[in-house]
Write the structure tokens for this entry.
Amino acid sequence: MFLPTTIKEVRARGWEQLDVILFSGDAYIDHPAFGAAVIGRLLEAEGYRVAIVPQPNWRDDLRDFTKLGAPRLFFGVSAGSMDSMVNHYTANLRLRSNDAYTPGGKAGFRPDYAVKVYTQILKRLFPHVPVVIGGIEASLRRLTHYDYWNDTLKPSVLAESGADLLIYGMGERVVQQVAKAMRNGYNAKLLRKLRQVAFIADDGYVERLDPAETIRLHAYEECVRDKRAFGENFTIIETQSNLMEPTATLIEAVGDRYVVVTPSNTTLSTDELDHSFDLPYQRAPHPRYNGKGDIPAWEMIKHSVNIHRGCFGGCSFCTISAHQGKFINSRSERSILAEVERVTRMPDFKGYLSDVGAPSANMYRMGGRDRELCRKCRRPSCLHPKMCPNLDNDHRPLLALYEKIRAVKSVKKAFVGSGIRYDLFDESPYLDTVVKYHTSGRLKVAPEHTEDAVLKLMRKPPFALFEQLNANFQRICRREGLPYQLIPYFISSHPGCTERDMRSLSEKVLGKLHFNLEQVQDLTPTPMTLSSVMFYTGENPYTHEKVYVARSQEEKRRQKSYFFNEKPTGNPTVPERRTTVRQERAPKNHRPNGDRTSAPRPRKGENPRAIPGIKRKR
């Protein structure tokens, strides 16, 4: 049985009032890959009455927000599996024509800045009901952050939305604690003692905190005035996020109030993670979507199995470690194999698992040999600039898991569709095994660039490692008689990357190695990443070294053209090695694209920084 989404479904269960109502920017798919389903099922397992309102209409009479009434405990709000602005716009600030998390792939079923919009509506309609926000959009906007789509610094989403509480990171453990603390009503004293939450507080509360256990960040207003202050904030936030057992509470002033962020929890135990994946998901989209077209995100992952969480790669442009954590949280073989069996019983399963993977495919059960050293570690990456000598990169547990999955009777082949970290390889036959048994014909890896200066800023390994991987891959394919392809991912316009760097990339990848590139993208600077901080400030916040930034759309277009062996037309818009960054100011009449009543979205192909707004129909 699905979690209810309508008053009819609620009444069919004999319920008079719900305990928790979840609002999501995604369609409701009852599967452990989708956050609203996970949170709903976890709370349901604890005995709470939970409903989900997927993709509520924020442009009509707001009946979607009132149809289920007021919950006994709280409203939960998430933008969905992606930041709504990443979901809506390309790196060139053009409006996307589709949405992978909506039936039929149709766009237009969630607002820009969805967390802010949903929360403001709920607080207006139900001012006395607590609103708890979470998911990746809320998590990575919990403190002052650079917003690429408006080219400005924004304050915490707590300050903008009016939410009562924010859960950051993976929220299974915390949301259960929040619900328990609210059993007898909103109890601010209990909630503020929880780890891994953020909230707005006044001066009196902050003054009572122990100075030895708090870190005062630069105020939002100071960050707006001084880019270096913003960069310094980021280094503190990232360092604290990467600690195994953080103890410091972060405090950031916004006007006459304060955003308070409590330290994160330790990672879930294997039993806790297994419990989350073992809940009675229907493993399908809700029947309300029957006849409305496939949901692309569901079609992509429905026959896949996630084996762990977290990533210790620490790439500058990636939000995974910021959201899921640096330390690997692996499921048990029992739980994974049980899910494989459930997938094989799906009516449309033909014998092929599309992915046995994770954020990075080959980090299963990896971590520090000496956990005491990990407790003291402040590195953002276990792999950059060199692999940590304390890292146990033994691939044998993963190879043993692959073997057991291959032995499942109904599985013809289990592919590894997630990206593989080739800088993590040990002496085991991991690459041979993946190529022979777990490749669909296309093996995905992410060198991202070829030039050392750019790779260093990306926190990626030298390109020579990719060249070695390519040689080994080709050797295995020749030996086994396999016509397989290696599919490399590359990024243009990363801070520090010049047109000369892109020309070198083109010569090495298209010329010397003869790749026809498919998986390429222009950098989208997303909140709470090192890349976005460098993009905005024009310097590395850790070293204060100036970095070149391809800031204008013309500069970005020219860089991306090198992926396709196209010679950029016209004169270069900037010197090829420039140490200062030209700031582009938004027009005076420019406003954020949050509430459609103040700033509707642009049309497809129009730039959200330059178009005041238009009306769009649902």
